[in-house]
Amino acid sequence: MKLKKLTGIFIVAAIAYVCPVSAFSQDLHFSQYFNSPLLVNPANTGFSPDVDWRLGVNYRNQWASITSNPYKTMSAWGDAQLFNNQFPNGWVGIGGALLRDEAGSGGLTSTKAFGSIAYHQLLGLNSLLSTGFNVGWVTQRVDFTKLTFDDQWNKNFFDISIPSGEPFAYSSINYFDLQAGVNYAIFPSDNTYLNAGLSVMHINRPKESFFSNSDVDARIPVRYTLFLNGSFKINDQWIVNPNMYVSEMSHAYEVVLGLNAHYNLSGDGNTQLIAGAYYRYNDAVVPMVGYQLNDFSITVNYDVTTSALSSYNQARGAYELSIVKTGIYGGGFKTVKCPTVKF
Known about the structure:
Helices cover 7% and strands 50% of the residues. By secondary structure, the chain is mainly beta. Strands 1-2-3-4-5-6-7-8-9-10-11-12-13-14 form a 14-stranded antiparallel β-barrel. Strand 4 (108-122) and strand 5 form a beta hairpin.
C-alpha cells in the first residue's frame, strides 16, 4: 500500500516538475550539454568552423534505482552551414532538433520539435560573433488512468473507479516556445580557443498546465543559460577542454563545471580517446569516457549522486549516451575561415 501511494505522489511531483505551478523548476537537460549544442543556445546552430554539418543523438536514463519507470530523455539534432561562399567573413547556420522525455508510471511525455537559425560573423582575424534564435512546438501528455490518488484509497486498495477528486482539465497540452542567444569566440592562436555564450529561453512565456484557468500563474518562467568553453592544445598528444555551464530558471540554479581531454591515438588525430569529469553543484559527480574515429564520436557518462538523494538511490543517478557525426559537403577539403584547435 505504501509503495503504491508513494508512486502516486512521485508522479504528481513529476507533473509539477514540468508544470511550473511552483516557483522552483528546471527544464530538461543533459549532463553532456556540450554534445547537445542546439538545446543550450540557438547561436550554436552551424557553429562548427572546421566542418559543414553535424548530426547527433542523445539518450539519458535516470532514477532507475528508485522507480520501476525511470525517466528517459532522448534527442536527435542536426545543423549545417550555408552561404559560406556568399559571405566572405561569415556564414549562416540552420538546424533543428527533436526532444522527447518520458517520466514515470503515468506516461507523462514531453515532445519538442524546433528549428533554429544563426548568423556567424568574423570580427577581425581572431574572433567571431554569433547570434541565433529558434521556434519550437511543444506537446505534453499524461495518462491519468495509470495514476492513483489518495481519494481513491478505499481502506483496502486503490480503486480507480472512485473519482480522484483532482481538478485536471486536460490530458494533453500544446504551445509555441521561443529562444534566442548570442556567442562570442576568440582565437588568440592555433592552439587556444575561448568561447562564451548567453541564451534566453521561453521568451514568450507560454502557459504550461494540465489544469484550467486559475489564480496560479502557469506561464513558464524565462530561463537564462550562460556557458564558458575553452580548448587548449598542450602538445601533439593532448587537447584539453574545460567547460562551465550555469542555468537559472525561477530562482532555481544548475551549475556544471569540469573538463574533458582528447588523446591522439593515431598520430594524425583521426583516432582519439576522450575522458573527463564534471561536477553538478549539490547534485552529482559525472565521469565520462569516449572514442572518436575520423568524423564519428561516441561518449558515455554516469551521474554519481552526491546530494541527499544518494541515501535512497545508493548514489546511482543516471547514465547518458551521446553520438555525433560530422561531415564536409562532397567529402572534400574545407577552407576554414577562423582558427580551430585540432591535432
